Structure formats: C-alpha cells, structure tokens
Description:
Structural class: alpha+beta
Helix content: 40-55%
Strand content: 15-25%
Strand order of the largest sheet: 1-2-3-6-5
Distance between the termini: 81 Å
Shape: rod-shaped
Number of strands: 6
Amino acid sequence: MDSDIMFWLGAAVVAAVIEGITASMVSLWFAAGAVAAMTAGIFTDSFVLQICVFIAVSAAGLLLFRERFIKRTKDPVATNADRVIGKEAGVVERIDNRAETGTVKVDGMLWTARADRDDSVFEEGSFVTVSEIRGSKLIVKELSKRPDEKSGS
C-alpha cells in the first residue's frame, strides 16, 4: 500500500478512537476527512490535494453537521419524575432558599424543594405548585388556588 494511504488510514483510526473516548462530535469529522483524503490518495499522488480534501471535508462536517448531532444527543430525556411538574405539593418542612431547607410531599413521595424566588418562604402545612425539577430538587411556587377552593372537594 502507498504510504499516503497508510498515513490517512492511521489518521482516521486515531480520530475515531479519540471520538469513541470523548464523544465530543469533533474528532468524528476529522476521521471522515481522513477517509476522504485516503480515497483521494487512491486517485492522486498529490499530498497537497489530499490535505485540501482532508481540510474541506473535516471543516464541512464540523460546520454543517456538528450542531445537529449535538442537539439530537443532548435533548432532555423525560423521566417519571416529570409527572410531578404542575402538581400541588404539601410543604412538610419549611422552604427557605437562604437557609437551604425545604421538603414537600407529592404523590405520596418526599422531595427536597426550593422556592422559585429567593425571597419566597413557604411554611410547613402550606401548599405549593411544582414548577420544575433541577437535579434532584423540586422548584416550587406559590399555589395559585387554595386546595379548599377546588371544585368537587
């Protein structure tokens, strides 16, 4: 085999291994560029042309496709915990962001909770609405409607 082809094959393998280790969606495009340059090496002995093919394919991959791949792989994955968003929760332990305290009960389960605003404090026995989940903590806000105001209860 020609030394240029062996060089590009080695570069493609190294880039693919680095991509496998890091999963950064960067080295993948260098591997593709190396394969394209290796293919060009089959048809031409011009190493300068092979380098130009490598640069063009790698740059095109990075610029055109990297963001699409990242968006697909970084989309949030829904979990069963998401079902508590929008639900009413009872405050079991006073929620005070400054004191870093707070526990609520939702669907029979206890969760660590924090208020959606730093100046909000919710006392034990009050009710709140779950607005989001950050890590393993529920972010809660003031209940817009008291539980005893619901129709049918």
